[in-house]
Every structure is written in structure tokens, then in C-alpha cells.
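Entry: Peptide/nickel transport system permease protein
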Amino acid sequence: MTSPMTLSDALPGRAIASHIRIGRLPPASAVIPCLFLVLLILAAIEPRLFTAANPLAIAPREAFQPPGPAHLFGTDQSGRDIFTRVIYGARQSLLLGVGAVAVSMTLAIALGLIGGLGGRITQRAVGWTLDVLFSFPTLILALLFASHLGNGIGPLIIATGIGNVPGYARMVLGQVVSARHAGYVEAARALGHSPARIIRRHILPNAMRPLIVTVTMGIGQAIVWSSALSFLGLGAKPPAAEWGTMLSMGRDFVQRAWWVTFFPGLFIVLTTLSTTMVGRYLQRRLEGRLP
């Protein structure tokens, strides 16, 4: 006797759909930050997709206009549209974050390889140097270099990047030391591969894989540090449309016009939260805690 036909057998589409695991879809905690970052990247690449106004155009008669239909985020003390300036500021702020992380990782990889592949004396010297630098808060270390390099986007990227080097370098050093004694590296040596090829094909890729999450979250942190330096007057010069500079320009008008500083600060917070949440999601995926 044959078994009775079930509804799933009668409707193949439902039978197939019943095997789809909803858990395979990224959670909202990862999708929403990703969408925000995509919009932010689009604003950085082509800000005219979101606004046709000039971020530097002044209109003294429209100074300190509150948020409304004419100006979504209001205007500043010179009548400049804050929404337009925030959109155009995405380019410089993202450039600061990505550039600072690139500088940090370049120096960290160099120090990590020197310390991890050298002898005991070299490894200890690099470790002690990183311990000394790590004893300084990131902002203080970045401020020290920024005060010597001068103002501007380029010096700000270098100063913020150097300030984050100790943390990245310590992680790279640990990963290189671990990969150096791994079985696949010993097998490559036994096969007669050159040291340069072993570093390029085996040690460096495996040492860098766990740092993807750290780099993702580090972009938001670098934006915070660079914005702090810009707030102190060591970043882009006014009236540049950069979030930290906008905070610095509007700090004297907080009680009179809260929106001048609120919206640039809001986007700094949202960008940092988005990169952190995406990084946490990638971390859970790499650790196998998500399907």
C-alpha cells in the first residue's frame, strides 16, 4: 500500500521552499549597516546623486535655518546647507578612515614580519617597541605625530595611521609567529621553496586572514580619531566639508543651532556603528557561529 500523498508532494514548490534555511540569510543587524555603508560609498563616489547644491556656497541671509523642507539638516552660520556638506564630507571622512587603516596595516605588516621572522633578539626588540608605543593612548600618539606633520588630509591620514600601528602590529606579530611554525610552512620548506615564496604564499595570507575583521572595524575607529584631530584643528582647514571640521566650526553655536554639530556627529556615529556591526558579523561567520 502506498503512503498517502502529502501537501508537500503535491506542491513541489513548497517542498523545495521547505528546505530553504532562513538562517542562511544575513540578519538585519548586518544588512542594515551594509546598506548604510553602500549609500555612504555612493555619496563619496558621486555626491551629486543625493544633492545638486554646492557644499561651499554661502547665503548669509539663510544662516542658522533649522531643519525643514528647504534644508533637510538646516544651515550653518554662513547659510551653507548642512545636508549637502554632510554628503560631500563622506568622501573625505571615508578617505581618512581607509587611508589611515592602509597606513597602519602597511607598517604593522612590516613590523610583524621583521619581528616574527627574525631571531629572538629581533622579536624581543620589536615586542618591546610595540609595548612602549602601546602604552600611549591612540589619540595621544596620533596627536603627537599630527602636531609635527602639520595640517591637511595627508598628514592627518599618516598621523592617525601611525597612532593605530601598535595594536595592529601586535596582532600581525602573533599571527606570523604562529604561522611560522605551522605544518604547511614546514612542508613548504621541505619541498625546497624559497623564503620569499613561503612568506608570500603561506605565512602572509594565513596571518592576514584573521585580521580582516579587525581592519573592517578599524575603519570606523580611524574615522573617529581623525575627526577628533580635525575637531582640534589639525585636520582639513575650514570651510572644508569634512565631518570633524564641521564639528569644530559649529561648536560655538551648539546652544543657538544644535543641528550644526548634531548631523555631522550623527554620521560619524552611524559610520562607526555600521563598520563595527559588519565586522562583528564577519567575525561570527569566520568562527563558524553562523551558517
